[in-house]
Amino acid sequence: MARKAQRWNPERSLSKQEEGILRLCKKHKLYSFFRMHRHEILDEEVQERLLETYSSGGHGDAPIPPAQLALAMLMQAAFGEPDHEVPTLTAVDRRWQMVLGCLDREKPLFCQGTVYNFRMRAIVHELAPMLVDKTVELARQTRSYSSKKLRVAFDSSPLSGAARVEDTFNLIGHAASEVVRTAAKRLDKSPEDVAQQAGIPLLNASSLKCGLDLDWDQPDARAHGLKTLLSQVDALHQWLKSELSAVLDHPPMKEQWETIERIIEQDTEPDPEGGGGRRITQGTARDRQISITDPEMRHGRKTRSQTIKGFKRHIALDLEIPGLICATKVTAANIRDYEVVECLLDRLESQDATVVEAHVDRAYVDSPELIERRKGGLAVITKPHPLGSRHDVLTKAEFRFNFSKKTITCPAGVVGRFKLGSAMEFPAEKCDCCELRPRCTKRETGRGRSVFVNRNEKFQNHLRRQSKTPTGRAERRERVKVEHGLARIKHIQGDRARFKGIDKNDFDLACRAVVNNCYLLGRLWEMRKAA
Prior knowledge:
Layout: H1 16-23, H2 29-41, H3 44-52, H4 66-79, H5 85-92, H6 94-100, H7 112-124, H8 127-142, E1 149-160, H9 168-187, H10 191-197, H11 208-212, H12 221-243, H13 245-248, H14 253-267, E2 268-270, E3 278-280, E4 298-301, E5 307-318, E6 324-332, H15 341-349, E7 354-359, H16 368-375, E8 379-381, E9 400-402, E10 407-409, E11 415-417, E12 422-425, H17 428-432, H18 437-440, E13 450-453, H19 457-466, H20 470-477, H21 480-493, H22 502-530
Parallel strand pairs: 1-7, 7-8
Antiparallel strand pairs: 1-5, 2-3, 4-5, 5-6, 9-10, 10-11, 12-13
Helix pairs in contact: 2-6, 4-22, 5-6, 8-22, 9-10, 9-12, 9-14, 21-22
C-alpha cells in the first residue's frame, strides 16, 4: 500500500540516557547543538518544504521522515562521513542515534541507497540553500538584527576536482576507451576484442603511453605519438560507421564520440609542417576539458602564481554577524569571479533583504551587476588596482582626471583627451622637451607618455582617494572577516571536492555553510543563555 512521507516530531526534552551521552560530547559540541536545537532548524516551515519534495506514490513501507534524512545529511557533511558509513553509524554510534532520535536501535535506520537518493532529490529541489536561509534567519533573530539592509563581503577560494586531470594523450585514449566499452556491450564482446577489430590496439596496453612505446626525450616523439593515436581513433570511427552506424547517432555513443571530437579540437591544431597532420595546440584553450570522468572540471587561476584544477567556491558573508555565511556558489575554475556576483546577490535578496554595502576582492569589481548597482547607490568597498611597482616613474595617481570633460592633465600641466577603456598618449613634442620626462616615462624619444584609462577609472580614482584616509582604510580592513569565513569552510570541507560535477559540489558547499552557521548559532545561543 502506498504511503505518504511522514512528518518528524522529535522529542524536545532530554532523557537520562541522552543527558549521559551529552556529558561525553563536550569536545564535540555539534552533537549537543543538533540534539538540543534540531526542532528549530527543522521547524514546521522546513518540514513542509521537505514533504513537498516527495510524491504520494510508491509502494511498501512508509519512507523515513525527510527531516530525519536532512539531519543525517548535515551530520554527514559536518563529520565528513562517506555514504556507506552513514547507515552504519545510525546503528552503532549512540551520538548519531541520540541526534536522529533512534536510541538503542540495532539495525541501520536506512540504507546507503536512501542516502544517495535523498541527496539527489535535495539537489533538484535546492534544499541545502533553504537550510542556509533558515540558519541565517535564526542567527539574525538571536542577535535581534534586522536584515533589511545588508552589509556583505564576497570572496572565493580554489576547490580541486575529485577526478583525475589528464594530458592530451590520456584524454583522447580515455574517451576512446569509453566508446569501445559501449560498443563491446552492444555487441556482447570483450572490450579487448572490439579494440583489436576496430584498429585501435593501443587501448589494450596497460597504459596508452606504454602502448606507444616511444622515447619521449626525442624531439619528434610527441608528434609521432599523436599521429599514431589519431590514426587509430580514425580507424575506430570508420569501424563504428560500418558495424554500428545506427548506434553512432544515439546516446550514449553519440555523446561519447562528440567528446572525442571536442578534445581533438581543443587540444590539437593543424601542423604547418606536418603535411596535413595535427600537432598539440600551442597554449591552452580557455574552456579546455581536463578530465573525462568529470567533464565540468576546468583549469583556472586564483592569482598569477596559483593555478586551480577543478572548481572555485564563492561565499557571501554578513559583516554584521561575523562568521555568518549567507550565500554560496561553486563554479568551474575558469569562470571569472565577477560573473558570480549576480547569482550571489539574487540569493541574498531572496532572504527579503537589500544589499547596501559590498566588500569585494578586485576580481569582482568588473561585474556589470555591481557597476549598475553602484549607480543606484550601492557602496562597493575594495582595493584600487595597483599603479605599478616602479618607484622611478610617475604613476597615474600624479595625473589629474576631469571625467566630465574627459581630460587628463599631466604633472607638467599638459592636457589630453581620453576615451574610457583605451590608452591615451600625450604629444611627443611636449614630452620630448619636458624636464619631468626622465621620471615620467622610459619610452624612446619621439613617443609621449601613455596612460591607460580603465572603463571604471572614475571609480578607481575614488578608491585611491579613499585609501588615503583613515576611514577608507578602516572600511577596507573589514573584508578580512570573509577570509576568516573561507578558512572555516576550508577546515570543514577541505581543499578537494567530494563529488564530481558542479551541481553536486554546489550542494555540498551549501551543506558545509549550514554546518558553519550551526557552529556560530551554538555560540550565539550559549551567549544568550549566559546573559
